[in-house]
C-alpha cells in the first residue's frame, strides 16, 4: 500500500487552520489595536518566510525520500506538538468557560476534544486534510457573513501612522506572532506526506495567513477599536457588531466552527506526534492521552496565552525544530553523501 | 471497538455545541426587548419590556403590542435588579435580544460609565443603542402612542429615524465605550421625548401621545455636559463628519422650502495655524425640495440651503468646550503627531481653541 499523500493546497489549508486556531484563542484584555499590530504581523510574516526556507528545502528532500530524522530527534518533535495540542485544548476550554459558561464543563470539553481528536488522528492525515478543506470553507463563510452584516461603521481616524509610542506594541505582537509560527516545524514533518511542491504549500500558507489575519486586524481597528479588549477574543469580537434578520447572534455558529477546528487541529498535532509509534491506534491513544493530561494540568493551573514560559517554549521550538534541525539534517546528509562518493 | 470509540466521541462532542446542555424551555425565559432605567431612593427601578407570547400559540409569534409586557424590578445596581426580576418571576432573564436601553434623564448627573460597565459584562448585544428619555423611562417603555404600543422596535425606529435625518448621533454601546472610556472623547446621546396626548374633555381625543427626538445630552468621560437642541445636534454631526442625510427648512421673503439633503459627504482636514488647530471641512450633498411655498428660485434655495448648513455648524460649534466631541485629538494624533506630542499635557485646552473652516456645496437632485 502506498503511504498517504496530500496535496500542497491541502497542506497549506491545514497549516492555516492551525494558525487560525491560535488566533481564535488569542485572548486580549488590553489590546492596542491599530497600525503597530498590523505592521507587527507584516514583519513576522517576512521573518517566517525566511525561516520557512530550510523547512521547505527539507520537505522537498523528504518527498524524494532523501531525508529522515533520527528517532530521538523525532521524539522531540512529538513532545513539542503534544504540548502545543494540550495548550490549544486548555486555551479553548478557557474560551468555552468565559464565553459559554454552563454549556459544558471545561474539563469535560478537554476530554471530549482529546477523544475526538484521537479518533481523527487514527483515521490518518488524508482524512484530516479532507476535513480541513470543509472547515476552511465553513470558516470563510462565517468570516465573510460576519463582515457582510456588520452594523459597525469604519472610523478611518483609528488608522494612525506608526510612531515611537507604538514600538512596544509592535515588538510585543512580533514576538507573540513569531512564537505562534510552529507551522514551520509542522512543514518539516509533513513534507514526507506531500505529493509535491512543499514551497507552494509553505508560501501559500503564509499568504493565506497574512491576508486573513491582516484583514481581521484592519476590521478590528476600523470598527471595534479598543472595545475588542472588552470582548476578549478578536475573531469572536468580529461577531459583536454582526446582526441580521436571519441570524440575530453569531455566537453559536462561532462556537460550532471553533469546536470543529479545535478538534481538527488537535487531531493534526496528535497525528504528527504519534508517527514514531509503529501501531497507529496505539500512537493515537498514547498521544491524545498525553495531550489531554497536559491540557488538564495547564487549565487547572490557569494557563494564559501570553504566559512567558509558553511563548519562549513555542519560539524555541520554532527556531530549533523548524530551522536549525532541518539545516543540520541536510548538512549531515550532504556530508555523508559526499563521503560516500569519495569512498566509492 | 473502533465504532464504539467513534460513536462515543461523536455524541460527547455534540455537547460542545451551544445550547445542548444549557437549553431551556422558551416559557422559562424572559426575553427582554427593551430596558428602561429610573432612579429610586436607593439605586434604580428597572423596567423590562419582555416578550409574553403564549405557549399554546401555533407558529412563530412576533413581538407586538399584544405580546409585550413591562415588568419592574428594583435594585441598588442594574445587576441586582436583574437578579430580583429573576427571583420575582422564577424565569431566566435573557438580554441577548434587547433592542434599546433607555435611561431617565433624571439620572444624567451620574454619567454613563456605570451603565456601560454593566452592559459590557452582560449578554446584551454590543451594537444596541443607548438613549436618554425625558421623565420616566418606565412610562416611556410602556406608553400607548399614536403609532401603537411603545415596543422596542418602534422606539428604536424613532431613534434611528432621527439619526438618519441627521438630528441625532448614533450612540451604541461600542461607540459610547470607545469614545468615553478608551479615547476620552465626549458623546451626544439622544433624548426620546413623549408629547402627552390631550382630550377634549368629553372623552374624545384631541391629540394623541407622540414620541420623538428633539434634544441630545452631551456626556463626557467625567459625567454630564450640557443639553443641545436638534439643530445643534445636527451641527455636531456635520462637524464630526458623520451626517449622511439631513432635513431642514429655508425661508426668505419670497417663501419657504422644506429641504432634504442626501448623500452628504464631509471631508475633514486638520492643520496647525498660528500654533492652534484649524479644521477645514468641505460638505457636499444633493438636495431635494420636498415642499415649497411662494416663488423661490433654484439658485436662491441652493444658497439658502448652504447658508442653513453653515448656521447648523455654527450652532454645533458652540459645544466645542464640552470635551472632545469632534474627535479632534484623534485627528491630531493621525495628521499632526509631532504637534500632539508637544502639546499632550494641555490638549484639553487646545481642543477648546480649535477653529473650524466650513464650506458647503450642494447640488439639486
Based on the model shown, name its key terms.
heterodimer; A: 344 residues; mainly alpha; 13 helices; globular; B: 365 residues; alpha/beta; 2 domains; nine-stranded mixed sheet; 11 helices; 31% helix; 36% strand
Q: What do these coordinates show?
A:
The complex is a heterodimer of chains A (344) and B (365). With 344 residues, chain A is mainly α. Helix content of chain A is 74%, strand content 0%. Chain A has one domain: Hydantoin permease. With 365 residues, chain B is α/β, with parallel strands linked by helices. Chain B folds into 2 domains: 183 residues, no CATH class; 137 residues, Nutrient germinant receptor protein C, domain 3 (GMP Synthetase, Chain A, domain 3). In chain B, strand 7 and strand 8 form a beta hairpin. At the A-B interface, helix 4 and helix 11 of A face helix 1, helix 6 and helix 9 of B.
Got a strand count of chain B? 17
The coarse silhouette of chain B is: globular
Q: Could you tell me how far the N terminus lies from the C terminus of chain A, measured between alpha carbons in angstroms? A: 34 Å
The largest pleated sheet of chain A is described as: none
Strand content of chain A: under 5%
Structural class category of chain A:
mainly alpha
Nearest-angstrom radius of gyration of chain B?
25 Å
What is the CA-CA span between the terminal residues of chain B? 74 Å
Order of helices and strands of chain A: HHHHHHHHHHHHH
Supply the number of helical segments of chain B: 11
The portion of residues assigned to helices of chain A is over 70%
Helical residue percent of chain B? 25-40%
Name the pair of protein chains with the most residues at their interface, and give those residue counts.
A-B, 40 and 37 residues
What is the molecular shape of chain A? globular
CATH superfamily of chain A: Hydantoin permease
Oligomer: heterodimer
Percentage beta strand of chain B: 35-45%
Largest sheet of chain B: 9 strands, mixed
CATH topology annotation of chain A = Hydantoin permease
